[in-house]
Amino acid sequence: MQNAVIYARYSSHGQNEQTIEGQIRVCKEYAAQHRLNIINTYIDKHKTGTDVNRPQFQKMIDDAKTNSFSYIIVYMLDRFARNRYYSTMYTFQLAQNDVKVISATQNITESEEGELYQMFLEWEAEKYSKRLSKRVREGLTTSVANGTFTGGFINYGYKVVEKPLTATRNIKVVQLNETTAPIVKYVFEQYANGVSKKDIADDLNSKGYRYNGKPFKGRSFDRILSNQKYTGSFYFGERLCTNTYPQIIDHALFEKVQKRLSQNKYFSGANSAKVDYLLTGKLYCGHCGSPMVADGGTSKTGKTYHYYSCKASRKHTCNKKREDKGFAEWYAVEQTQLYLSDPRRVNIIANDVIKYYESRTCNDELKRIQAERIKTQKEIDNAVNLLVSGVSQTVIKTLDKKITELTQLLNDLTIHQSKIEIEQGMQYTKDDIVTFITEFIQGDPHDKDFQKRIIDNLINAFYLYDDRIVIYFNIKGGKETAFIGKDDTDEAIKDIEKTGLIGVQTLTPPPRQTKKLLVKIL
């Protein structure tokens, strides 16, 4: 029997989630069915899945390095992590120690094919959402143009009332709130005259006014001061609407406030601009294997420079040179685009993803879930029958708890089955996956949003040496090696050709970001 551990987590936000005890019971049953020997259980209570700073979770990750277990069993995969970035990062880290994460209720694993398939589903959902949004917006535009309130958040200073449209039908329209509309106008006037948000809030609170039932705070005005609807006109899509919201302030006052907001935003952000280091958690030193972390400096002229530096080099135990942040992030994305521009690779990847899709949505998997549902329902019925039979109060409490756990399990299985049945009906093809990959990697490798999308989803680990890089992609067998040559082009190519490899492609680095020549082995 192979050794395994159980990881259970309960979020304080999810009152309907399976309890810790219920998760453990289901995981133990799974282990018994698959002849896995449970040697430890890690439990984090009241912890969200987007936070990886969970004590027991981190202890489990460290214990995996001892090679004492081969599997981590979770109730559902979102118990492990709800953030794809962290899920991928820790799954990769565990894989280095030959440890796999498996679900007791979902017949899927955090495999490369599963990651790509999930990305594909999100891409499909995004496309559908855009199409649906367009159709809904077209319908709403007509209603808004007619002055009809179409629902949603009602701005402070207004109220919604019903107005007869015909003898049998009413419509909702927006009117001024006699109590709060004057407050909105006062806030605009005071801020335009130079009064701070805090002072405006203190003044209103001292007079007994409230914002949605609570005392005003400076940030209470952020939504108010930037809302164009108070002028009586606003844009819905590309349509200018002038008959939905009654005017509270004039356009001149609104523009004066916007100018002051813009100035304050500039000055407050000048010294607090946040720089995202996109490769954090994925970039490693090629010399010693330590993580490369955010670093930087300021020149005598005041110019700020951003780098990645080896964590060990800070303790003088590694001689890896620090690398320009812009270069490292651009190069990681550029190499990913090149890797996935090869039709042969894309074809192999698409085949793997389709095989995964077919195994996930096959009838055997649906039969397995249905069998689990029938079994769970029988257990619920048996527990209910015992309750009806009039057992002791102690047993009643135990049965109540068990029924709650089983009911949640039945609900989770039902949702999981519904998702698979929907996916099964989509009948995805290899061409769909190829189209997705082709579109996904289209973008400017210098664009930060595009860089983030590529790095978060496709790059698993990036090992940076002084003369070469090694990238592990979130793709089965996805490993790529490229060389960073010397400053002298001819000499660099000669050095590469001496290795016996032929066909050298010189790549153009981002302007003013590095003097190094990039040489790509074909």
Please outline the major beta sheet: 6 strands, mixed
Q: How many separate helices?
A: 15
The global form is: globular
Oligomer: single chain
Class inferred from helices and paired strands: alpha/beta
Strand order of the largest sheet: 9-13-14-15-17-16
Q: Segments where pLDDT lies below 50 for 5+ residues?
A: 13-17, 268-273, 486-490, 495-522
Distance between the termini: 45 Å
Describe this structure in words.
This protein has 522 residues and is of the alpha/beta class. The chain contains 15 helices and 17 strands. β5 and β6 form a beta hairpin. The longest helix is centred in the first third of the chain and has 34 residues. The radius of gyration is 29 Å and the shape is globular.
List keywords for this structure.
522 residues, six-stranded mixed beta sheet, four-stranded parallel beta sheet, globular
